[in-house]
Design brief:
2 domains, Rossmann fold, 433 residues, 6-stranded parallel beta sheet, single chain, 16 helices, globular, 7-stranded parallel beta sheet
Length: 433
Amino acid sequence: MRKINLLIPLHTIPSVQSYKTIEVKNLLSALRKKANIHITWIVYQADKIESSVQNKSDETILDIHNYRNAVEILQDVKPDLIYAGATWDLMECSFSSAGKFLNVPVFGGFYSDPKMERKQTTLLKASVTRFFENSTPTDTKKNQKQFMRRGRFFIYKYFFLFKTLNVTDLNIFKSLQKCLIVLKLLLTANPDEVDSRFANNLHWLESESLVQLLIKSGFDKSSLIVSGNPMLDESYTKIKQFIPSKKNDKIRVLLLPSTHFEHGIWTKTQRDFVITGIIQKLLENKTHLELTIKIHPSSSNLLDYESLIHPIDQSIQIHQTGEVLDFLNDADVVISFWYGTAEVYSILAKKPVIFCNFFNAKPDDLLQRGLGLECKNVSSLVESIDKVFLSNPASEQKRDKFIHESLGQWDGKASERISNAIISLLEKSSNTN
């Protein structure tokens, strides 16, 4: 059986659950049937990772701060394959560029979920605000705060990209030009835009709807594989095995705050207004509503949410670790703000979803498809909960149509399809070299 050294840049330590760790977990279950896999995680956070983080026999964890650029890391690790997105994200772009320079195959993926368009003024304001924040989303300790901590880390990543490009181009002016292109895209582009200048060797696509978009944008058709979403593979098995939990006298409400603030769609003031409004309204009706809060496992800052929610009620538990699917199994109604993985899980699990749209944004794809109920002000939230509890707006027909058109294939086999494409890519690369 062949050996594959897979290198993956990651914004958290691997034990912290994120979309990428779930994807990799599912991909590995398929890949390890075809090859012996060793993962080298390149962790990039504002501070060096703690010495207590231990390597395993089949994985190595390296700290970005011990290297000057991505080329140096690749020369040290000598990976056979790199998992990095074809985007202008600073670190993904760094490793993708280094891989192309050293002829190491790079693969990544594209989701079909529609993103919220952001006005230019809103985007710039959010970017400036986040730059001056005193913490980063992956911080876990109160004493980590420092002036402009998030901005300092952005500068670190930006110079890491510049130093990587300076090695790959061997021309400081070309490196500066590329860095300026990336900065412009970060400050002006909506997240659903694609740019073939960042294309990789292989791209898995969640659904067929992405093919023409990417080809029109300049991507090579032969690099595209419609696979479905590997992150949803495990959910297919788990949701099929859901056991209805025992009902009680209260409606069990699961609040899944979307990361609008963390991704520059909302300001902190907007996020705080929505969260506190929802919490206060639910507490006013706690005689027949039971609240559980599950925030994003890696993008959200637990300390930030605790400082926001606990002054309202110290007893409210805010969960960051754990599988969202486990929380869904015991939920009667889900409250969220926008199309995301957790919301897709909710619909797949046939849980009624309320989308809080307190700022009158354009309804997202899930709402337009009738897969949830829109709540436009906090005063009608309890009424909305009672309504969807009695009748889920997401009918079986609507749900099946959504799966077919947006998720492509939800059958638990996306990882298998991607692993087959990876093996073909590596074989082709070996023959070329």
